[in-house]
Fold this protein.
Amino acid sequence: MEAEEESMDVEAILSAHQSKFKSTEVNKEVELQFDLGRLLATDLNEIEAQSLKTKQKDGYLLNLMRDNTQLLINEIWKFPVENNDGGISVQLPSPKTVLPREKPIPKEKEPTKWEQFAQTKGIAKKKRSKMVFDEKSQEWKPRWGYKRINDPKEDWLIEVPDNADPYEDPFEKKSEDRKERIAKNEYQRLRNIARADKSGRVKAPLPPAYAAKLNKHQVTHALGMARKSTASIGKFTPKLSKEPAAKSAGKKSKFRPVVGKKGEERALNLEILKKMSKKTDILDVKKATSKFISDEHEKAHAEKQQGIRKKKNKHVSHKAGKKPVKLMKQKARRKKR
Amino acid sequence: MRPLTEEETKVVLGKLSKYIGDNVKLLVDRPDGSYVFRLHKNRVFYVKEQIMRWATNVARKQMLSLGTCIGKFTHGGKFHLVITALDILAPHAKHKVWLKANSEQQFLYGHNVLKGGLGRITENTPTYQGVLVYSMNDTPLGFGVAAKSTQDCRHIDPGTTVVFNQADIGQYLRSEDQLS
């Protein structure tokens, strides 16, 4: 009796438990499209636009999402389930949907000078084997590197042509020539890099070796740039403790509005003029000395004139002040007097 | 078109005050209406405020000029006065030079003023002072810089340069395309 009751209980508990969850079977008018490699399900059924406008919008969307997720998971369960010791797993197929790449396509490398030339001449690159047969030693030797063919170290004798300088060491000349060729090649390599850099195609990031050589100023500058280089222009970049306040990297030009309040500009300009006039109040030595000399001359001239007048017993008042002087007629006038 | 910044205003007013001294104040604070300075395509214009307000309706690209062009800012940030500023400078000039009739033409061809061509000069003009150049019948001809002070002018020989030509009304013909 008791056992029967218990079994009844179990069934009741199970049904009660099951009623809490929805069925795994979902019916849809149009079947979903799956790309299981990307765990993607596409629902082509029409959305009930009406329920999106009501207050039950969230409930409707949640329900829709649950149903679709259920279908996706049903689909996953169709694959053979492997039982690993960590748990169960499913081998998903390879994805079908193509995703756009995150980074832009790398730019094409700028062709070197030789590559440009080869293209215009139609010279195709040929694959050269690493090993070359050496006729002298009747052996296969590498084209370059250790124990290479035509190794200059193995040359113990060099034939000196008639037109060669007799005092020249041909061995030394040979090694010198080799060094020169290497240097020339290096130069051309650098020139190619420079050309590519100029065209802006190749922008190498800051190499760590270079970064290590930065001085304090450059480091603070780089730090400031790095802090600012976020989507929010560094607004939320966390600060270090005791970090110095970043100096503003650039000055932003800010202009007054083209049309301001009436009379505002005049007041500003007068203010500037006031400031400027304060500066000019400082004694201008050159001007002062020339003024002094001019006054002296004037004085001497006046005295001289007075002397003449006294002799002639005439009285003419001397003109003073800032008035134009007729230079050319001055002499004539003096003569008349 | 935009108003001058404080630095630019200082440069412009400083340059004007080299020619008209304290009278710059009269240009800024005019009883006959409000006048403003405006920068447009590196040129500084002295313009009546009302006209400037009207000019805001013209697109920046389309606008060539407004008011009177008084000079231009060079790429290095210096300010050069141009001949069109003569009308503004002439009534307020502090230091003047009058040319004799026969040397007027030389000046209008862009040459410096020699002592021989000098008719009159304002007294107490120091060396390197900005001066306005007039003909003997008081027609403004241009402006320049005094190479010699009034005091020196009395003693030098007639072939010596007295005023360096900076701008003259001959430019209206000579460099018509470069003006404005």
Q: What stands out?
A: The mean pLDDT of chain B is 91. The helical segments of chain B are 6-20, 24-28, 49-55, 86-89, 101-108, 150-153, 171-174. Chain B is about 25% helix and 30% strand.
